[in-house]
Amino acid sequence: MRQRAVRNLARLGTAHARITRILDAAAGGKNNFLADRDLVRHFDQVTPVATTAARAVLEYLSRVVRHLAAVEGVDQFMIVGSGVPNGSSGGSRLHEVARVASPGSDVRVVYVESDPMALTLAQATIEPFCDLVRVVDGDVREIDEMLGDPVVQTFLDWDRPMAVLLLSAHSLDDECARTAIKRLRHAAPEGSFLGLLHITFDGVPPELAPAIRSLLAMTLPGLTVRTRDEVADLLDGLDLMEPGLVWVPEWRPEDGDPACADAPSSSGNYGAVAHIP
Asked: Which of 128, 141, 180, 263 is 20 to 30 A (C-alpha) from 174?
């Protein structure tokens, strides 16, 4: 853990964008740097959908947490790689969404982060004010070490159902992604849920695809973009809740004016939630 913390601090370069901070910047949050905001502006110059797409992603995450807490009765969450953005509707973070959705229970949330800025800010601004939230330095690419973290093991009750949300599969190659999902589904207790968020180019107009690919290659070289079939392959064998693997605005939409509702593919992300029997 200490070695990874040192590596994370060494990677804390404000000149380079990170996908979680880009999401936060596009949604109007504060947990980002100038490089992240500049990249959002570059995307909007190519196709003006970055801000709306970020809203669609955050709304999806809020709906997932709200449904699992209010309807499925989940009272403990492990959220991997969210960046803990604060740009969602009303500025609510996911642990706040869960708490409001299930006011009669003590919902526990563990955020697992490898982004040093997200980790430091969340530990400074969340943990001191909420006894039911922990922020852990962990990397899904080191899945066994992540699951074995003392806080992860003791703060959550591994004898009861929980929800594990994997929001950073885009940082993994195919082998690592399959391994992470397999380990998470087998580690989670019976009756748990596994949620996934994944970026895609499936909805990008062909005439814009080369420019967007070039921009991503220069600014986010570690990003893995998958098609729907490739994302579905990662979820093979899992029992997906309705409506299955869909564009994020299509996952159990609620009343109101959801972002990208008229053009779900412009959200640029697929989402799914699986029930672990």
From this structure: 263
